[in-house]
Write a structure and sequence with these properties.
By secondary structure, this protein is of the alpha/beta class. The chain has two helices and 20 strands. The termini are far apart.
Length: 198
Amino acid sequence: MIYSFKGHIPVVHKSSFVHPLAAVTGNVIIGENCYIGPGAAIRGDWGEIILEDGVNVQENCTVHMFPGKSITLKESAHVGHGAVIHGANLGKNCLIGMNSVVMDGAEIGDECIVGAMSFVKAETLFKSRQLIVGNPAKTIKEVSDEMIAWKTAGTKLYQQLPMDCYETLKEVEPLREIPKNRPIQEDFYKTLQEIKRS
């Protein structure tokens, strides 16, 4: 669902995928190879929202801001299921954990990882490569090379997902029984575990 608002029409690169059950409104620019999951709401009604290349905003996330603000989710930022980004800027290749809230004026540095269910207070600034957790969120240690390699591999799966959706996703009627030739699921998790161990 893509909506214009006060003359602003969202710009979505042709390589990016916005799920039909997501809502993108107004002054929003979405770069290359981005994935926007079902139930996500990206509301550029009161200000500008820029998603640089390779960003993913997963299911049931909200991206919004106070009036007159502009925010950027930089290249390869990864916003986990149910997270809220309200008027905050996200650095390159950072990860926002599931159901976290990042408030107005906060700045998450490049390659930071925000733990699931963390609350980042307004105007809080985090430098690059910090592991950020809690309520209120604070740095507990630096992000290691191994941690960022694992994060980057997961994000690459999401950067491939738009193409996979364009090629294979379609609305269907459910089967009423399990077919004998049911396809075997690819083991993406095994791949991530191998990266984590290496």
